[in-house]
Amino acid sequence: MILSRQDFRQHIREKRNQLHSDVQFQASMELVTQCAQLSEFQTAQHIALYLSADGELITTPLIEWLWRQGKRTYLPVIHPFSKGHLLFLHYDQHTPMVLNRYSIAEPKLDQTQILPIQQLDLICTPLVGFDSTGHRLGMGGGYYDRTLEPWFKTGRGPKPIGLAHDCQQVEKLPVESWDVPLPKIVTPSRIWDWE
């Protein structure tokens, strides 16, 4: 039986939501160790991440580690006028937060805190699942596919790196024409590299 994209989403989300809090915490610490090895994190100054939801690999320890390294971090905000697009706003421990339409915390919209996407060095992307060729399965809104499309077509702009639990890897995902494969995905146990 061939699974649909929605079947994959449901199956993988169930797997990661079953991870015990101790496993989640350990995974978040191992993520920091993995990312600290990567030259992309060592050289980048402006790094977009996301706050974890729905069993995603917890990014808070990575964000706090980046702050200690003197890096500037940014979080996605759903664009208020351009449907299906993201803005990236500077994020630190004093950033006022609100819940978006998906009940995910994001910085309160403040034009002075927006960094144009092309000025980011890295975009760490959430994902539901990924396969052995670097294809990522998101939640289905297409926000990151639209954000990463210029990089995919031209190779210019911020480099995307996916972050995921090991259990989110599958052999092969069904792929659509608009899907943007990732050059790297970091899990707690390894760095997947297709460059």
TrEMBL record:
Keywords: ATP-binding, Ligase, Magnesium, Metal-binding, Nucleotide-binding. GO terms for molecular function: 5-formyltetrahydrofolate cyclo-ligase activity; ATP binding; metal ion binding. It catalyses: (6S)-5-formyl-5,6,7,8-tetrahydrofolate + ATP = (6R)-5,10-methenyltetrahydrofolate + ADP + phosphate. InterPro entries: FTHF_cligase, FTHF_cligase-like_sf, NagB/RpiA_transferase-like. Its EC number is 6.3.3.2. It comes from the Bacteria. Substrate binds at L51, E56. GO terms for biological process: folic acid-containing compound biosynthetic process; tetrahydrofolate interconversion. It is an enzyme of class 6 (ligase). SUPFAM superfamilies: NagB/RpiA/CoA transferase-like. The keyword Ligase applies. ATP binds at R5, Q6, D7, F8, R9, R136, L137, G138, M139, G140, G141, G142, Y143, Y144. The keyword Metal-binding applies. Its cofactor is Mg(2+). PANTHER family: 5-FORMYLTETRAHYDROFOLATE CYCLO-LIGASE, ATPASE INHIBITOR/5-FORMYLTETRAHYDROFOLATE CYCLO-LIGASE. NCBIfam families: MTHFS_bact (TIGR02727). Belongs to the 5-formyltetrahydrofolate cyclo-ligase family. This is 5-formyltetrahydrofolate cyclo-ligase. The lineage of its organism: Bacteria, Pseudomonadati, Pseudomonadota, Gammaproteobacteria, Vibrionales.
